[in-house]
Structure to design on (833 residues):
């Protein structure tokens, strides 16, 4: 390591996150590979290293002999200042080589408020941020991940987007790139070919025209690019690549544990949930595969905790058999098992009690809304009785820590719905009083309310988001009614949710605003201490754009959306039908009970969902 | 149950692993090589591992000690190799041995020997090494020492011994033994003293490496 770097590391917070060398990180001989791939996560190391999808793709890419994939994370503010002052470019954690040495620079898009970090990381790495300024095949910038379901706000900066499961499309993409590199293709020639790979979206090959009212008139593909880029999915999770080992950070990260993925997709159709609509159809991993992978990953990582990851763990077929088998392996080895995303039914509570015998970490319930009417609007099939019944069992079993999650600003919400939130909390507190056998120990009930953000590719994509003023008023009201003793009320400032809402349903004209915001110092926008709302609003104004046009406008059902040419499997007609049902507070049963005909089954061989 | 001690080195990229993180890292490495770590019983089961005299984050060392309990009768054969196969870059097990009768007590450590490297952008400034030699040849070098109990002016010469200074084109290296334990002297005070008494020299880089630890009578700790 260079002396200069050592001096910097002695001054910054948490230097271990900037040095690499962790167990499981992969080092190769540069001369032996023909593709250097930078896997960039536009957030801090601690967030990046916690992300399961990135762990999988890192393993997959490095399994290829000709590819060396390295990790690049966004440096925290202090480190960035040091790097800039010393003239040291952002680098790959494995080799320490500057980002500009890499062929493919890929970012995973988990959150709209990390977009400026993408620009900042490219710039710190000595790579031009605008796609049009990168004229060579080298430094090809690719993106994937949940936010790629509306890639348009990033169209100015990104060369290609991978839509859908990375495991499925990644190697087709890298193979084509390696061929192009070997044969000396131009960047343009490569992009035209890449657009022929199913699930690859090349924004520069699409022309967008607008109407007078600012909405989109039409999106026209050029150079033979497809009119609809349909996402790619892994059909069989049992044969899908899964790493035997993970990078084990030598410093604390957000989710510092092994993870296995029960299934992809979710059989429930919560109407606000983007993941629930974009990860369809449901695909399950068999119990045998999961047990085998869990054992391998625990053995190779040395982690003392494993968690089951999914959108709705309780819906796993043989959850009881799976946990039983995992506990058989874990208990004698002092490994703990955690089961997030459980639903509030008694079965789950019993299961959690068995699993977390020693750690009463707390129960969490995502109620989302305060009244049954509004829960029907959003199709969240959880009833107050379920929550109270689960709490009853938990409190009787000695638990004294419950977290309840809600959203405010949902479509059709009224004061009555907000009152309902306070009501539920009151009932839970009362339930504790009735059921606890140790009143002296007290209870901790935490209610958190986040602000609803309408997301593209969901039934609420037509809906107006509450304005900042409306959200603030509701938050102020909540503070006056959340008065129950033993209930701690948390809320989050509405400004970040509003910006998230603006960008989530943005079009490619927003590139200008994002660029200006970044130039004026916006970065790490997802972190309260860095977020600057006024600077963002000014950037939008200077780009000639009205944020309200994107976020707080009720959109007509026939509007052409910026993301209409990106297919997430679920058809727009289905989303429209769901939107209409929501206005009648009519529920749609989950996929296990009845197929709602969303269209995602077409992605499967034989066209049949397995639920 | 069986008490064991590992002597290890912490160098290169591993310098930046903090004390708390080092304990996790060690436990996970032990789990990877199936070291039969002993866990406490009861409500919050955890393994017992403890690092003697933790290094400051950013320092390297080749005389570090980790005490741990194992359930087997003796130290597993090839334990050193097995651990070295699963350590992150920069950690290296040197020796693992049983602690009979509890072994040497960590509290008995009285001195640490360090290597300090002062680095410069270009060549070492003229006269720097000699000026440093002359500074520490004085019978008294007073500095303000900070501790949990507050600030105190001390003669740092009382807390250090055996200083040798050598130089290359762009670096000056000091090897020095400083007090450890209760009334200790971090080697960083040498750099501070130079900055205070020889302000004409700018030292852009300073690196610290622990070479040895001793008890009061000069016996190497083990
Ligand atoms: S096709 Fe039917 S069963 Fe399959 S995901 Fe869509 S709604 Fe569910």
């Amino acid at each position: 390591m260079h002396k200069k770097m050592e001096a910097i590391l002695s001054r910054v917070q948490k230097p271990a996150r900037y040095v690499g060398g962790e167990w499981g990180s992969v080092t190769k001989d540069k001369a032996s590979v023909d593709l250097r791939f930078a896997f960039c996560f536009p957030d801090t190391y601690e967030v990046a290293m916690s992300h399961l999808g990135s762990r999988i793709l890192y393993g997959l890419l490095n399994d290829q002999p000709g590819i060396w994939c390295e990790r690049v994370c966004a440096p925290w503010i202090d480190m960035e200042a040091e790097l800039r002052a010393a003239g040291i470019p952002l680098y790959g954690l494995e080799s320490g080589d500057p980002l500009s040495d890499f062929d493919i620079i890929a970012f995973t898009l988990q959150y709209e408020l990390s977009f400026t970090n993408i620009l900042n990381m490219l710039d710190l790495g000595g790579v031009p941020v605008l796609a049009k300024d990168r004229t060579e095949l080298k430094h090809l910038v690719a993106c994937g991940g949940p936010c790629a379901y509306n890639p348009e706000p990033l169209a100015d900066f990104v060369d290609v987007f991978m839509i859908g499961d990375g495991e499925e499309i990644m190697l087709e993409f890298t193979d084509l790139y390696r061929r192009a590199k070997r044969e000396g293709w131009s960047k343009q020639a490569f992009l035209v070919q890449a657009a022929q790979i199913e699930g690859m979206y090349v924004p520069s090959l699409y022309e967008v025209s607008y109407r007078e009212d600012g909405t989109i008139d039409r999106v026209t593909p050029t150079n033979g690019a497809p009119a609809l880029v349909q996402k790619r999915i892994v059909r069989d999770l049992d044969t899908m690549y899964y790493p035997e080992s993970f990078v084990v950070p030598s410093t604390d990260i957000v989710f510092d544990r092994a993870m296995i993925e029960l299934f992809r997709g979710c059989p429930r159709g919560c109407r606000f949930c983007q993941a629930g609509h974009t990860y369809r159809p449901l695909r399950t991993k068999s119990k045998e595969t999961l047990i085998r992978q869990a054992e391998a990953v625990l053995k190779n990582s040395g982690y003392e905790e494993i968690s089951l990851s999914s959108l709705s763990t309780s819906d796993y077929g043989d959850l009881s058999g799976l946990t039983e088998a995992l506990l058989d392996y874990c208990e004698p080895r002092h490994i703990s098992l955690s089961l997030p995303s459980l639903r509030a039914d008694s079965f789950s509570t019993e299961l959690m009690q068995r699993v977390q015998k020693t750690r009463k970490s707390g129960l969490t319930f995502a109620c989302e809304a305060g009244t049954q009417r509004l829960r029907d609007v959003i199709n969240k099939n959880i009833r107050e009785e379920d929550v109270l019944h689960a709490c009853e069992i938990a409190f009787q079993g000695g638990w004294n820590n419950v977290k309840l999650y809600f959203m405010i600003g949902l479509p059709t919400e009224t004061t009555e719905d907000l009152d309902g939130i306070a009501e539920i909390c009151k009932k839970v507190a009362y339930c504790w009083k009735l059921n606890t056998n140790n009143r002296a120990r007290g209870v901790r009930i935490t209610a958190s309310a986040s602000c609803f953000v309408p997301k593209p590719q969901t039934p609420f994509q037509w809906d107006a988001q509450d304005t900042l003023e409306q959200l603030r008023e509701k938050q102020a009201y909540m503070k006056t009614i959340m008065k129950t003793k033993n209930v701690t009320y948390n809320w989050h400032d509405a400004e970040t949710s509003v910006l998230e809402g603006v960008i989530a349903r943005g079009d490619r004209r927003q590139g200008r605003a994002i660029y200006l915001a970044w130039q004026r110092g916006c970065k790490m926008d997802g972190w309260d201490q860095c977020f600057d709302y006024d600077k963002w609003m000014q950037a939008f104004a200077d780009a000639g754009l009205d944020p309200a046009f994107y976020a707080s406008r009720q959109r007509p059902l026939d509007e052409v959306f910026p993301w209409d040419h990106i297919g997430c499997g679920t058809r727009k007609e289905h989303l429209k039908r769901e939107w209409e049902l929501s206005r009648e507070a009519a529920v749609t049963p989950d996929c296990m009970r009845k197929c709602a005909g969303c269209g995602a089954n077409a992605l499967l061989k034989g066209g049949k969902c397995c639920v | 149950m069986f008490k064991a001690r590992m002597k290890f080195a912490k160098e290169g990229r591993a310098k930046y692993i903090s004390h708390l993180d080092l304990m996790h890292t060690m436990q996970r490495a032990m789990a990877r090589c199936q070291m039969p770590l002993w866990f406490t019983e009861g409500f919050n089961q955890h393994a017992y591992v403890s690092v003697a005299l933790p290094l400051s984050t950013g320092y390297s060392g080749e005389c570090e000690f980790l005490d741990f309990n194992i359930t087997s009768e003796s130290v597993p054969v090839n334990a050193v190799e097995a651990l070295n196969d699963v350590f992150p870059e920069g950690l290296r097990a040197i020796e693992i041995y049983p602690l009979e009768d509890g072994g040497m007590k960590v509290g008995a450590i009285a001195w640490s020997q360090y290597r300090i490297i002062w680095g410069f952008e270009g060549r070492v400034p003229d006269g720097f090494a000699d000026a440093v030699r002359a500074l520490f040849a004085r019978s008294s070098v007073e500095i303000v020492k900070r501790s949990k109990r507050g600030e105190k002016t001390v003669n740092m010469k009382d807390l250090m011994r055996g200083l040798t200074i050598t130089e290359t084109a762009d670096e000056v290296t000091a090897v020095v033994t400083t007090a450890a334990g209760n009334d200790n002297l971090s080697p960083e005070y040498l750099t501070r003293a130079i900055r205070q008494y020889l302000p004409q020299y700018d030292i852009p880089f300073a690196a610290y490496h622990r070479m040895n630890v001793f008890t009061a009578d000069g016996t190497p700790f083990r």
Remarks:
- Chain A is about 35% helix and 15% strand.
- Residues A 280-281, 591, 595-598, 600-601, 609, 611 surround iron/sulfur cluster (CB under 6 Å).
- The longest helix of chain A spans residues 415-435.
